[in-house]
Amino acid sequence: MSLALEQATSNEWHVLKGESKFGPYTYADMIQMMQNKTLFNFDYVWSPHLESWTALAEIPDFSVDRLSRVASASQEMFARRSTERVTVSIPVFCHDNSRMWNGTCENLSEGGALILMQNPILLPGHMIYLHFRAKAEGEIAFNCTAEILAKRLTRQRIQHDTGLHYAVKFLQILPAGTEQVRSWVDAEVNKMKVLK
């Protein structure tokens, strides 16, 4: 698939997974692998215009801004979210059956969330358990299981209490939890409509 790009991008990319090198891949292949969760921001890649193997997150061709522009120009390539996503600030407890962390849900939809938590060791593919706490009277607290889809890297030195963002997909959530999520999302959507 060819992409309509406003600036040149290399169409020869190689991926390093462990000790194995794969490629060459086109830029479109790389984006599709990112969407399919087989290529992550922490993976190292190389292209002829790069001096050395570089973490994908550090390459401007794969920045959020650049991918947003590519998505606008080549919409058929990008999977669209089927549910509304809103900015929130909801306290959550996160655990993986052995440790527990405080966290904050910063972005929410009926299908998943963006969680900021102090845990640098979780990886995409890990299953976690979330307890969403009620923020106000009339709201309900609920539990759900989720899968980590992506982990946002940081340039700071990672320690046990480093705050990292994790994109998660909800796997199991009780109907009351689904209703509470819908209520939070609807409230934020309505706020945005009033501001417009």
Structure report:
- 20% of the residues lie in helices and 35% in strands.
- It has helices at 27-35, 64-73, 175-195, and strands at 13-17, 20-25, 44-46, 54-55, 86-95, 100-108, 112-118, 127-132, 142-151, 163-173.
- Strands 5-6-7-10-9-8 form a six-stranded antiparallel beta barrel. A four-stranded antiparallel beta sheet has the order 2-1-3-4.
- A hairpin with a 7-residue loop joins β3 (44-46) and β4 (54-55).
- The longest helix has 21 residues, at 175-195.
The ordered string of helix (H) and strand (E) elements is: EEHEEHEEEEEEH
Strand order, largest beta sheet: 5-6-7-10-9-8
Question: In one word, what is the shape?
Answer: globular
Measured distance between first and last alpha carbons? 37 Å
Known CATH architecture of the largest domain? Beta Barrel
Are there runs of 5+ residues with pLDDT below 50, and where? none
Classify the beta-strand content into a percent band.
Answer: 35-45%
User: Which bin fits the share of residues in helices?
Assistant: 10-25%
Main sheet characteristics: 6 strands, antiparallel, barrel
Q: Count the beta strands.
A: 10
| Count of domains | 2
Tally the helices: 3
The CATH topology of the largest domain corresponds to Thrombin, subunit H
CATH homologous superfamily designation of the largest domain: predicted glycosyltransferase like domains
What is the CATH domain class of the largest domain?
Answer: Mainly Beta
